[in-house]
């Protein structure tokens, strides 16, 4: 398990009470915070990497100034095996490199018009046209085959978001090549635009999904559950322990102690002498019941 992000705590400030409480909280559940260097331009540790104490899954952690934000970049290696992605075979042509004049000349030289005119049925005309044009394409852009990994996109990943990410990548390459301030500003603008669009796309997607679950609490529960338990292989994590039997005894002692405390409190309260005597001088007495009016009954029903 890895928790990371901008927690907005000055974790290195001993006088920050909230940061101290947060540190005690993660310590109480056997977690540890790994970032020790400043991650903000003002000199505080705000961005954290949190893991289980006994899990050595993060290594080679370092903090670098990335020049595009008031926060620094945190680089680290994960000691995990990346799952192998499924692959598929695709065929393609490099049509972008085709010269339009050359293509036009080859089509004219192929006598495609005469070949189409010589056929009688529409099916034959279309077939000879496709064969002729395909033969020309084989000369200029032959069919190639390659194996590519299958990377399914998230449900909220739209064509607009894909285009913005391409623009961001182009802006980043240009800035890293020139190192000009104007190119850095263009890159930062493109980066922020992608982040904003990503948030909007996620909100729109889940808003539509929640609306689809209207009147179906079971589907709504499944949707909410998928947000914090994204995989079916989720398993609850027990506290760190070396002896399973001792852990069970600790659980038993904890909850048994709570029951004993409740019983002791009830016993101590029952020993108090109740004061059941009526007040000596009541402020008012009930002499008779007055029948309720129809208007009063209606008002009570409306309030209910």
UniProtKB/TrEMBL annotation:
Residues 268-291 are annotated as: Disordered. It comes from the Eukaryota. Transmembrane segments: none annotated. This is Endonuclease/exonuclease/phosphatase domain-containing protein. It comes from Elysia crispata (lettuce slug). The lineage of its organism: Eukaryota, Metazoa, Spiralia, Lophotrochozoa, Mollusca.
